[in-house]
Write a structure and sequence with these properties.
2 domains, 7 helices, 2 strands
Length: 191
């Protein structure tokens, strides 16, 4: 499955960045697409009417994500969100005229935007600072850099967040009722 390949690739990339930072080889990293956002696309493939990723494969992906990412990696210090309405995005796509983008629909962009909104809220709930920039019109890079610098100086309550392990979906109803009576191991794990 492509999403598992991407998860593995981004996990390796993230660990390499952390290693290089800890060794003093680089001061920081700015990424266009991160390991955290891959969950958005996996969720959308699972929610697709054709179930491009089955429920079983999606839950396996989330288990792998929990074990690899949530247990091993720190969250970003700052997430920059370029907020653009789906209608504006589709206009830009059509004006660029790239063949590979012409099959992208407004419906897809609306679902993507909704999933990003949910993702942004999840990141904020985890303590990640989010700098939301209105992107209906492009802004000068110097202004973006100024805002990022200003925002990154704000105090953060975030250090590292570990969410409880997800319970795998049960195939036996009696297991579900027994699980409700007794919380699963690791339910209150957190740092």
């Amino acid at each position: 499955m492509m999403q598992v390949w991407l998860l593995n690739h981004r996990f390796r990339q993230h660990r390499e960045f952390v290693t290089r930072i800890s060794l003093g080889r680089i001061r920081g990293v700015v990424q266009d697409r991160t390991i955290w956002e891959d969950t958005i696309f996996a969720r959308m493939l699972n929610q697709h009417p054709d179930k491009i990723i089955s429920d079983l494969d999606y839950n396996s992906y989330l288990d792998l994500f929990d074990n690899m990412v949530l247990r091993e990696l720190v969250f970003p210090q700052l997430l920059i969100y370029l907020d653009c309405r789906p209608e504006s995005a589709i206009e830009r796509i059509h004006s660029r005229g790239r063949d590979m983008e012409q099959r992208i629909t407004l419906d897809y962009l609306r679902r993507l935007w909704d999933n990003y909104e949910q993702f942004i809220q999840e990141m904020q709930d985890a303590g990640v600072r989010v700098l939301r920039l209105p992107w209906e019109t492009f802004q000068p890079i110097s202004e973006v850099a100024r805002l990022v610098h200003e925002y990154s100086l704000k105090p953060s309550s975030f250090t590292k967040w570990v969410r409880p392990l997800r319970r795998s979906p049960s195939t036996h109803p009696q297991e579900d009722s027994a699980a409700k009576a007794k919380p699963p191991v690791g339910e209150n794990v957190g740092v």
